[in-house]
Hints:
By secondary structure, the protein is an alpha/beta fold. It has helices at about 5-10, 35-45, 60-70, 90-100, 105-120, 145-169, and strands at about 15-25, 50-55, 75-80, 100-105, 130-135, 135-140.
Amino acid sequence: MSQVSAEHRADAPKNVRCAVITVSDSRTRQTDTGGQLLNDLLLQAGMIVAVREIIPDEPAIMRPLLERLRDDAEIDAVLLTGGTGLSSRDMTFETVSSLITKLLPGYGELFRMLSFQEIGAAAMLSRAVGGLMSSTVVLTMPGSPAAVRLAVERIIGPELRHLVREARR
């Protein structure tokens, strides 16, 4: 790690307040294994989960929620799990992308690269996307527990504080 990167990490906020959103037409709190794992891994990484919701894969519901979270000064990052595939019901990518003011292409690229190492060419089916909605970090990932674990342990956990620091500048 470079000295500049180390300084940025040292200067990053200790308390990052997250919203965890599961996008699913069928999951409930009892069956939402991906969302629960995301919640648990964020807590283990020292983040604060301030909001946790399950919403249907409907842009008319997702968009106002994301706009409210973007405008909430108490939320630093919004993490969504589910709805990133190719089926006709998967609208997370389109909805989130329409709200991103600064795209973070490396997030999706890195997620797919790491996913490729685990599942092979099927990794190309993921439309994980990340960026900023104004100064709020937004990151999406597939809903499977394996994908959530990969995203949080290898990408989000190590860099979320740094991302929030840069988003605030």
